[in-house]
Amino acid sequence: MKNKKITKTNAMRMLDKKKCSYTVHEYAWSEDHLDALSVLDKMSQDAGAVYKTIVAVGDKTGVVVGVIPAQSELDLKAFAKVSGNKRIEMLPLKDLEATTGYIRGGCSPIGMKKAFPTYLSHHALDQKSVLVSGGKRGTQIELSPADLMAAAHAKVEEITQEKDE
């Protein structure tokens, strides 16, 4: 069977430049199921491995990025505090591509248009590897938490709360 050539994204090019080891995983996606839990189902990884990228705007710092487990919710108060803000709100979806260079369902914490302050959930340190968006829909990048921190210039913080069932 012939291997399909993977088109490199900004995220992959940045990882190559930093000489970080990563594995690309591709999956079928649909416009109706772009959320992280749908990706988790498609990837059939254990629940802690898939991480979602959340872009928000702080009242003092401007754009900030959170990277949290798929099954968790961002704790806005904790996120505001660790990022040096009083208040924080989600970046409007209509502004996502212009701000980051990525679209919904393909927003990677690595290789955004600009380097924004990035915060990785402390849960990642419990994982051997994590999966984050590869920079386009249907693509995930698996890498070590240390390489993710290095590539995204991320600080590890407690920024999540468990979802209410």
Automatic annotation (TrEMBL):
Keyword Lyase carried by entry: yes
InterPro entries named among the record's database cross-references: Prolyl-tRNA_editing_YbaK/EbsC (IPR004369), YbaK/aa-tRNA-synt-asso_dom_sf (IPR036754), YbaK/aa-tRNA-synth-assoc-dom (IPR007214)
An MF annotation (GO) of this entry: aminoacyl-tRNA deacylase activity
Pfam families: tRNA_edit (PF04073)
Highest taxon above the source species: Bacteria
EC identifiers of the protein: 4.2.-.-
EC supergroup of this enzyme: lyase
Biological process per Gene Ontology, one example term: translation
UniProt keywords, alphabetically: Lyase, Protein biosynthesis
SUPFAM superfamilies: YbaK/ProRS associated domain (SSF55826)
Domain YbaK/aminoacyl-tRNA synthetase-associated: from-to ranges: 39-149
NCBIfam families noted in UniProt: YbaK_EbsC (TIGR00011)
Family (UniProt): Belongs to the prolyl-tRNA editing family. YbaK/EbsC subfamily.
Protein name: Cys-tRNA(Pro)/Cys-tRNA(Cys) deacylase
Organism: Trichococcus patagoniensis
Organism phylogeny: Bacteria, Bacillati, Bacillota, Bacilli, Lactobacillales
